[in-house]
Amino acid sequence: MARIEKFALHIPSLEEIAGVLQNGLTENYADVQVSVVDCPDLTQKPFCFPVKGICGKTRIADVGGVPYLLPLVQKDKVYDLNVVAKEIQLPGAFFLGAGAVSSRTVGGNAELIPIVQAQNENNPAINGSYMVKINPEDSGYLLEKYSTKHHGCDFGLLANLYASEGLPGKVIEVKANRRTGEQNFISCIRKALEKHYGDKPVGMGGTFVIQKGKAKIHVMPSEFSACPLNTDEDVNNWLKFFEMKAPLICQPVLVSRDPGFDLRLEHTHCFSHHGDGGHYHTDTTPETVEYLGYFAPAEYLFRIDKPQETHMVGRD
Ligand SMILES: [Zn+2]
């Protein structure tokens, strides 16, 4: 089995995707407005990214996987975003997404919110990532800028990444307010794409802001579980769940359907400017929640270091 597999995703026009999402989200939100716009300048608040946009040579990378975390951790699974950028044929790529830190580097387990412009021939990497860890003393959580504590661009175990040249350009703007259904924002988008495009997988990434309300967020403990986590119930008892406050800036990666690469189909991590952050499950305030997102379709999917032995536990 190749360590790196490449797949050409289906790439509909932005206008066509906007129509599909307008229909799909209307089933789950009271107010929905999807349109094609110029990407806002993402160097500005609340994003403060190192690049202006999410356009140009778009890719999705699914690296490693939950089977390296569960049932027992494999701490030797360490990756580097500068290397991943080359592996996806985009040196200097700008990455957004959801992953785990390298426990070797950080000294414990933690959620990673990758926001990285990888190094290129002329410039060093810019690491704007955040990490969130559990404080073992009080079981609270701590959000930190990764680069204030650590050097380099490595991560561990797994990551779902959206990569681009970080350029301005046309994107799909999604506004959805007041949730009327059960699905979270990204599941609803993914399922709308799956329903419309069927066995032609569409991948998307970008960023969205939960502007009002609260959300259910988990943070992995600093210590890996010493006993095997064999079921979703085991995993949920190990994870720490919190209700966190808007505004939360979320980085989603999604693929509408798995074309056979043992993918995690949706994964979203978030940060904030008030100390909240982690792995997004859903909002907890359906009557007041307001989402505003910017998405672009990916041209290619790369599957890197797919686990040989797999399972479906812990993919929520
Ligand atoms: Zn996660």
From TrEMBL:
PANTHER family from the UniProt entry:
ESTER HYDROLASE C11ORF54, PTD012 PROTEIN
Gene Ontology molecular functions: hydrolase activity, acting on ester bonds; zinc ion binding
Asked whether the UniProt record includes Metal-binding among its keywords, one would answer yes
Give the subcellular location: Nucleus
What is the recorded name of this protein? Ester hydrolase C11orf54 homolog
Complexes and interactors: Monomer.
GO cellular component, alphabetical, reads:
nucleus
Q: Tell me which UniProt keywords the record has, alphabetically.
A: Hydrolase, Metal-binding, Nucleus, Zinc
- What Pfam family is a match for this entry? DUF1907
Question: Which CDD domains does this UniProt record tie to the protein?
Answer: DUF1907
Q: Which domain of life is it from?
A: Eukaryota
**Quick check: keyword Signal in the entry?**
no
Ranges for the DUF1907 domain? 20-304
